[in-house]
């Protein structure tokens, strides 16, 4: 069931289900002509390594990748090329998590390039195909991880969350597994577009636990759905929704959301006109609050 967004001027309400905000009521949507984006990752203050990965790419036949873990892309979007943003948070220890997240991101990027490079519009039928291909992409990454484990048994159990956003013209496609997140800021409201695939989040959805209890529950980090892990068969959550000029997109690992409240995330996204500055402030704030985990953020602004 859709939950209300976070309002900058109201007490914080944490949505626990994806909610696609309605398009503006002013007639035809203005076309998005420019996308400015930036991605950044940080080890945090307590971890000995960084198992997060991110990707910022423009989807052409060559898959232009300006960032896999450093500076900003600014592109004119008059041509109908898709833009791909990915965040992955690896688990497994002893570098296995780092290997899983890198393998998953590269596998998904190559799969998407090979299957969607001829897609230059997102009509109703084409949109369904895009969602289906993203489900296949994450399942393919899942299979690749298990194949790698078969070749290297020391990596057994490695896994990763993966949250993907694909922007084509004025449409946003999301594919997701795990507890990294995708948010959309629209008209000073923050919408959480993905569910957390965790034991505690599922208890909240079923009414067994209050959201206030969940925030401090000692099992809140038990992830129930990942790419890789102990058993094959990732369950891919997908969504499609319209984008509007002025929207701002955030993908992040839980190293951000565990440290920084959503109301504060909204304030930073609203205050920073530059995606790179927003990334830097979000990571700095997470580290100021303790930096207990790796922190990865990708921010994109959609302009007319």
Can you describe what's shown?
- The chain is an alpha+beta fold and 304 residues long.
- It has a single domain (30-303), classed as PPM-type phosphatase domain (Phosphatase 2c, domain 1, 4-Layer Sandwich), CATH 3.60.40.
- The protein has 7 helices and 15 strands.
- It has helices at residues 96-116, 124-151, 199-205, 211-214, 254-257, 262-271, 275-288; strands at residues 6-7, 34-42, 52-59, 64-67, 73-76, 82-91, 159-160, 162-168, 171-177, 181-186, 189-192, 227-228, 237-242, 248-252, 295-303.
- Strands 3, 4, 6, 7, 8, 9, 12 and 13 form an 8-stranded antiparallel β-sheet that branches. Strands 1-11-10-14-15-2-5 form a 7-stranded antiparallel β-sheet.
- β8 and β9 (171-177) form a beta hairpin.
- α6 (262-271) packs antiparallel against α7 (275-288).
- The longest helix has 28 residues, at 124-151.
- The two termini are 32 Å apart.
- The model is unreliable at 6-27 and 69-79 (pLDDT under 50).
């Amino acid at each position: 069931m859709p939950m209300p967004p976070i309002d900058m001027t109201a007490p914080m309400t944490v949505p626990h289900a994806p909610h696609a905000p309605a398009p503006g009521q002013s007639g035809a949507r203005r076309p998005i002509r420019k996308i400015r984006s930036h991605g950044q990752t940080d080890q945090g203050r307590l971890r000995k390594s960084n198992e997060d990965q991110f990707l910022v790419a423009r989807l052409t036949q060559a898959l232009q990748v300006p960032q896999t873990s450093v500076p900003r892309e600014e592109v004119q979007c008059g041509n109908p090329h898709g833009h791909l943003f990915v965040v992955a948070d690896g688990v497994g220890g002893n570098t296995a998590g780092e290997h899983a997240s890198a393998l998953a991101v590269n596998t998904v990027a190559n799969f998407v390039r090979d299957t969607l490079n001829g897609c230059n519009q997102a009509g109703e039928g084409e949109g369904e195909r895009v969602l289906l291909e993203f489900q296949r992409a994450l399942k393919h990454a899942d299979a690749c991880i298990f194949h790698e484990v078969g070749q290297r048994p020391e990596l057994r159990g490695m896994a990763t969350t993966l949250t993907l956003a694909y922007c084509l013209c004025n449409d946003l496609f999301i594919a997701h597994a795990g507890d990294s997140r995708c948010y959309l800021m629209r008209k000073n409201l923050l919408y959480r577009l993905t569910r957390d695939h965790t034991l505690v989040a599922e208890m909240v959805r079923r009414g067994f636990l209050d959201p206030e209890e969940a925030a401090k529950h000692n099992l809140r980090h038990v992830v129930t759905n990942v790419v890789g892990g102990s058993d094959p068969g990732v369950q891919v959550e997908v969504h499609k929704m319209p984008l509007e000029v002025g929207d701002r997109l955030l993908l992040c690992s839980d190293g951000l959301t565990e440290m920084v409240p959503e109301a504060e995330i909204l304030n930073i996204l609203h205050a920073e006109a530059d995606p790179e500055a927003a990334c830097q402030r979000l990571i700095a704030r997470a580290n100021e609050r303790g930096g207990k985990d790796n922190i990865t953020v990708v921010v994109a602004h959609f302009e007319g």
